[in-house]
Structures are given as C-alpha cells and as structure tokens.
Design brief:
The complex is a heterodimer. By secondary structure, chain A is mostly helical. Chain A has helices at 2-15, 19-26, 30-64, 80-90, 101-117, 136-157, 161-192, 197-204, 208-211, 225-238, 250-253, 263-288, 303-323, 329-356.
C-alpha cells in the first residue's frame, strides 16, 4: 500500500514537475510521514463515526421512543452532529474558581488520548493495522485502563461535590470491570495462542466448520459463549453506558465528573465515550466474531464484514440504553465481583482442561 | 494524639435540587451522606408556594376553582372536585346525576393521567427513559379529552359548585395537516376522533389495557427494575398510618383504604371496581398498585361511558344545578326573563353567597386523600380555606424512607412518593 500511495503522489506532483525536489525534501523523514498519514487515515474516519454515532443514537432511540429524533439541521437532520460540534467548539470553557486549573484540563485530555491511542493496534482488514504488534491485546488493555484516570482527575480537579461522587463511582466501577474483561480475554489468548489481533482473527478462520463452509461457527463466540457475553457486558460497563451509567447517573448525580465542564473540554469526554464505544464494539467483533472474516465460504472477507459486526454491537449499546433501567452502584459492583469474576475464572479452568483433553478443538 | 490534632470528619452534604433532573419540580432535598449512603434526607419545601389558601379569601367562591387546578398540576380536575364538594356541602345543593357521572368519569381519566405521569417519571428517574415517552403518548389522548370538555388541556376549570361547566361535546378536536404531519399521519391520528368525546374515550378504554401490558413488559419483571425498587423505601402498615399516608402510598403498605369505597361520594357506590393493595410496602408494591389502579380506573371510565350515552334515556339530563343562586341560568332564559336576568347579573358581579358554616370534603385523589376545609361567613368569598394535600405527609416521610439507602435510591423514593411540588407547597 505504501508503494501505491507513493505512486499516486509521484504522478500528482509529477504533473507540475515538482516531484523530484519534493521527494528530496521528504525522503529522509518518509517513514514518519507515512505513519502520520496512516494515523490521520484512522482518526479522521473515527471522528466522523463518533459524530454520526451520536446522530444515530438519537435517531434510533427516537424511533424506539415513538419520536422522530433530530430532523431539522440539513437533509434528514444529517448535519445535526456538525452543528453540535460547532456549538461546543465555540463555547467558552469555564473553569470553576475552586478548581485546580492544570488538572482540570489534564482530565479531558487523559480521557480522550487513550481512547484514540488504543486504535493503533486494531486491524481493520488483513494487514490493515497501524501497528501490527505482537502484544496488541495487552496494549489495548493498558490503554483502556488509562481512560479511567481522565474521569478521576476531572472529578477531583473540579473541586465540586457531584463530580467528586462521579469520580469515586468511576474509580470503583471501571477498575472492577477491567478485571472481568481482562480475565475474559485470557480465554481468548489461551485458545488463539497469541496476543496479536491479526493472529487472533486468523485463528478464528480455522476449524472444522470453517473447512465445511460455515466459518461463523468456528469463531470464538461459540466455544467461548459465556466469555463473549461477559466481555461485551463488561465493555458496556467499562464505557459507562446504560444500564451501567452510574458515573454520569443523570437522575442521581446529574453528569458526574462532567458537571463543571463546558465547551470543548466537555466535548472531549463526549468524544472519548463514543470512541470507546466503537472500540469495544470493534474489539468484540475482532476477538469473538472473527473480525474481517466472512461468515460463509462463498463471500469474500473484507472490511465490510468488520463494519457490519461493529454496527451490530453499537446498535446493542443503543438498544440497551433505550430499554433498561439503571443499576445501582453497589449492584454493579456485585455483578462484577460476584458474578463475572467467578464465572470467568471457572471458564478459564474449563477452557484449560478442554485444551489438554483429547477433545481439543482449538488447534 | 488528642482529638484536636485529628482532622474533623464530617458527613458529606449535598443539595439534591432545587435544580436537579430527578427532583420533580423544585424540591430541595439536603442529603447528608456517608459515602454513598444517606444518613439524613431533609426535604425543604416552599419554592413553589403561591399562597392559594390566602388568595382564595380574596376571590369569590367560583373564582377560586381555577386556582385549585394549579395545585397538583397533573390531576387538575380532582382538585376542583374536592373544592366543589365542600362548597356544595355548605350550599346544600343537589348535583344532577349526569354531572355526577361526568365527574366520576373525568376523575378516573385524571387518575390515569396522574399515574401515567408517575410511572413514566419514576422509571425515568431509575434510568428507563423510554417509559416516560410511552406514557406521554397515552397522556396525549387523555389531554385531548380534557381539551374537548373544557377547552384547556391542563387547567380545565371544568367542575363548578353544583355540577360541571357544560355537557360533554359531540365532536373531538381534530389534528390538521402541517409541515410536520402529513395527510396520512393526520388521518391516522384523527381516526378515533371522528365521533363524540364518549366515542373517543370508549376507543381509548379499549386500547388502554394493551398499553398497560406494554409498560408491564418493560418494567414489572425486569430484573434491574426489581433490584432498584424491591425493598426500597419500605413503610410498615402501622408507620404508614402514623405518618398520615393516603392513596397508593397507604395501599402499597397493605392497608385497604380508599375513600371511593369507604366514604363513597358522587356515584362511586354504583361502580364496580377493585382496590389493589400491596404486601411489602416498598417502591415496587406501590408501582404495582398504581398499575392496577390504572386498569381499575379504565373499568370505571368504561362504566360511566355506558351510562352517559345519550341513546340510553337515563343518561340525558342537566349537568349543573338549576338553583340559579349558585349556577348561572341558560342564556336563552336570561334573555327572556327578568328573574333570570337578575340572577345572571348577581352571579357575575357578586358571585354566589354561601351560608355561614364549615364543611370538609375529601376525595380519593390519585395521590391520596385531597381534602378541602371551607369556612364561610355568609359572604361571597370564603372566610378561610384549608387544603389538605396528600403529597405533604408523604414528603415528610422522605427521611424515614431514605435513611440507610444509597443516593440512587433517593431518586426511586422521590419517584414513588409521586411528588408534585405545586400540591405540597400550595
């Protein structure tokens, strides 16, 4: 792909006869430029997806609630997220007098940075990752754990009561579900023998069912069904989405850690939340639903399959939000520690035994 | 180390409201917290105090009626009802049978309106935000019924001492096509609105049980809903009586007390309906009681419609008393007769004169017992009006109900109280 892009540049600038001087300038730093270009190629569509995810959330929940949803700005309301973004962009960022100024701005940055950084290792198609590193899964776990600090720092720096409560809830909840999530992933890496996302996907393309044309039955979701469910629910909790949205807890602590934020500082949290939603949906698709693999033999693999799977999980996020009441804080803790963690531990043992038994299907 | 060296440890105090998405209006609840656990809940009221009782003293008896609408602004006609009953008791006038049926029907429509709002917002407070939009869909239809009888969707001023303002309308207001509603939508919306109000309400009573089933599908057996409401804000039957609870709050605790059965007013003694009671006295039981009350209210509305139908001869008749010292004479008569003209003039300048005395009338308001205690000195204005709002004693029990629960439960408890500050503050 690198060669193809270079070719296009060469052709374009060659039209003006500028290619040679330009290349002399760029060649020494070309690897860096190439990486930057890839980053932009990931971040820009991601931000666009985030914007339109907010739109779709409002539309879908609107339909579920016998409403229309946004339909005023642009055709069918399609420019609504742009308008929202512009509004937030031009709003003043107010800093409360009692707030710690430095930490107050570190908070939102800490929230969004890991949410974007985690995308570095996500493969979108065969060989389509910014960094196809061997510790990919590990890296993602590390990055998503960092996001919690954004919430905690924001809640603490606001020096206000509701944000403080939100930060306390966040630190407990997100840390607990991190554990259930991590343990659920242990089973995945056990059976795929790798922490590399591309390898994990490829491993799902092998098996008796895949050989007989029904690849979707070879994916991890079936043998790891409880872990698949635990992972996705933990992901919902990890991103503080309904019914686990006690950190924001609209009817309890109003907006939790975001109470004192306005303008772009607030938008950062918002972007981070939705970027994390897409990330969890993507990871679930990659780890349990075979990423870019086609469910059946006669259709080609490709990014469109991943996109379809991601959309399905994102829809679930929205569906949950429109359907369920909110858990209470201690009930979330109970679900995490007393249900998910024991369940994952038992399943690790089960999978481990299974793997050394004669009935091992994971080779 | 002496105590002076130690940092003073105090409980965390937060202001829950008056500007809070779950505070139902302008309730200010000061919560003293130990971590997430509520140590003390201190409701502060008065932010919506409008001195209704005092205002009534400067208005004629009839002019007070619209002020009653604004007390509990989600069950308007029930407020008027208690007031009209008190005034009628003082006046000793008979209310025509048809008016009594209309009142009972509209009371039950109001009960459904109120419970729909309560269940919707209660669920919203607990995080199930879709409920509120579903219940408002049905409220819209009932609001149309309000509009049809009185001309106003909210503040009806429909009941008058001696009867109701006018007979039920023969046609329903229609939707019209506009930028947002195309011909197809308008046709669908108007389908049930082709006949009279009674036709419309009958159609509604047929549709409504299915809607209630829908709400129950979303909530009743929902694990999260149960976890959030079962065992929360438990009030024992004895305590409920001591605290002065009435209505669903009392019945949720298992005490079968309903003024419609115990002290029937209007034509409630002719109605067949059941009074649901709870067992555990928690938020969940009170929710179930309200759901069942909506179904029973639907039954009563249906019975009233059957009676009120013009084609059954017994349903016809006047809707307001013919005592023209209380209610104005018909316009044709006023134009033709000297006597009626004088009545008309006196009524619209001075208003009615109520004989000296005191009277208390209470009704089974959707939230509990709503009572009006009126004292007259024989003038055209009340000497004193005292309103007994059901929400006040319920709110006073917040501390007892919320103590030891978590912040999130405070919202569940406020929701279950069915709080409307207009009613509590008066």
């Amino acid at each position: 792909m690198e060669q193809a892009v270079l070719g296009i540049f060469q052709w374009f600038w060659g039209l003006f006869g500028l290619w040679n001087p330009l290349w002399a300038l760029i060649q020494p730093v070309w690897p860096l430029v190439w990486v930057l270009m890839k980053i932009v190629a990931i971040i820009l569509p991601l931000m666009l997806c985030v914007a339109y995810l907010t739109f779709w959330e409002r539309k879908i929940i609107g339909w579920m609630q016998v409403r229309i949803g946004p339909n005023r700005v642009g055709p069918w309301g399609l420019l609504q997220p742009i308008a929202d973004g512009m509004k937030l962009f031009f709003k003043e960022v107010l800093v409360p007098t009692g707030a710690n100024r430095a930490l107050f701005f570190v908070g939102p940055v800490m929230a969004i940075a890991p949410a974007l950084a985690a995308w570095a290792v996500v493969p979108f198609f065969e060989g389509g990752a910014l960094a196809d590193i061997d510790a990919g899964l590990f890296y993602v776990l590390a990055m998503t754990s960092m996001g919690i600090y954004g919430v905690i720092i924001a809640g603490w720096a606001s020096n206000s009561k509701y944000p403080f409560l939100g930060a306390m809830r966040a630190s407990a909840q997100m840390v607990s579900y991190e554990i259930a999530m991590g343990l659920a992933l242990v089973t995945v890496l056990m059976i795929s023998n790798s922490l590399n996302f591309s390898d994990i996907v490829r491993a799902q393309g092998r098996g008796w069912f895949a050989d007989h044309g029904a690849g979707f039955l070879s994916w991890n979701w079936l043998p790891l069904l409880p872990m698949f469910v635990v992972y996705f629910i933990s992901g919902v909790a990890e991103t503080n989405r309904a019914p686990f949205d006690v950190v924001e807890g609209e009817s309890e602590i109003v907006a939790g850690h975001m109470v004192e934020f306005s303008g772009m500082a607030f938008a950062m949290f918002f972007l981070a939340e939705y970027a994390n939603m897409i990330l969890v949906a993507t990871l679930t698709s990659i780890l349990f639903l075979g990423g870019w693999l086609s469910p059946v033999d006669f259709l080609p693999d490709g990014f469109h399959w991943l996109a379809a799977k991601i959309s399905f999980f994102l829809f679930l996020f929205l569906w949950f939000r429109a359907t369920f009441p909110r858990y209470r804080y201690d009930q979330i803790m109970r679900l995490g520690w007393k249900v998910f963690v024991p369940l994952t531990l038992v399943w690790i043992a089960v999978v481990g035994t299974w793997m050394v038994s004669p009935f091992n299907i994971f080779k | 180390m002496g105590t002076s060296d130690m940092a003073e440890i105090r409980n965390y105090t937060i202001n829950f409201g008056p500007q809070h998405p779950a505070a139902h209006g302008v309730l200010r609840l000061v919560l003293e917290l130990d971590g997430e656990v509520i140590v003390r809940a201190d409701p502060h009221i008065g932010l919506l105090h409008r001195a209704t009782e005092k205002l009534a003293e400067t208005k004629t008896w009839l002019q007070t009626v619209p002020y009653l609408d604004r007390l509990d602004y989600v069950s308007m006609m029930c407020n008027e009802h208690a007031y009209c009953l008190a005034v009628e008791k003082l006046l000793g006038v008979e209310v025509p049978l048809r008016a009594q049926y209309i009142r009972v029907m509209m009371d039950e429509v109001t009960r459904i309106l109120n419970h729909l709002l309560n269940i919707g917002t209660h669920a919203l407070d607990i995080g199930a935000m879709t409920m509120v939009l579903y219940t408002f869909r049905e409220r819209e239809d009932l609001m149309d019924a309000y509009e049809a009888v009185s001309g106003a969707r909210l503040h009806a001023a429909y009941y008058r001492p001696g009867g109701v303002y006018r007979d039920l309308p023969d046609r329903m207001p229609q939707y019209v096509e506009n930028k947002f509603k195309n011909a197809e939508t308008v046709r669908r919306l108007n389908e049930a609105r082709q006949g009279s109000l009674l036709d419309f309400l009958e159609d509604f009573t047929k549709r409504f049980p299915a809607y209630v089933d829908e709400y129950e599908t979303l909530l009743t057996d929902n694990r999260i809903w149960k976890q959030r409401t079962v065992g929360i804000g438990v009030v024992s039957p004895e305590r409920a009586l001591q605290l002065g609870f009435t209505g669903p709050m009392l019945r949720g605790s298992g005490i079968e007390w309903d003024l419609r059965k115990k002290q029937p007013y209007e034509v409630y003694d002719r109605m067949a309906f059941d009074v649901p009671v709870g067992v555990n006295g928690d938020c969940y039981d009170r929710y179930l009681v309200r759901i069942e009350e909506m179904r029973q209210a639907n039954r009563i509305v249906r019975q009233c419609i059957d009676w009120l139908r013009h084609d059954s001869a017994k349903g016809a008749g006047p809707v307001i008393t013919d005592n023209h010292k209380v209610a104005p004479p018909p316009r044709e008569k006023m134009k033709a007769s000297m006597e009626e003209l004088i009545h008309h003039f006196k009524l619209f300048t001075e208003g009615m004169h109520v004989p000296p005395g005191e009277a208390y009338a209470a009704i089974e308001h959707p939230k509990g017992e709503f009572g009006v205690y009126a004292i007259s000195d024989g003038g055209n204005k009340p000497y004193r009006i005292k309103l007994r709002s059901p929400g006040f004693p319920h709110l006073a029990a917040t501390d007892e109900m919320a103590k030891g629960h978590m912040i999130a439960d405070a919202t569940a408890i406020i929701g279950t109280i069915d709080l409307v500050l207009g009613d509590t503050d008066r």
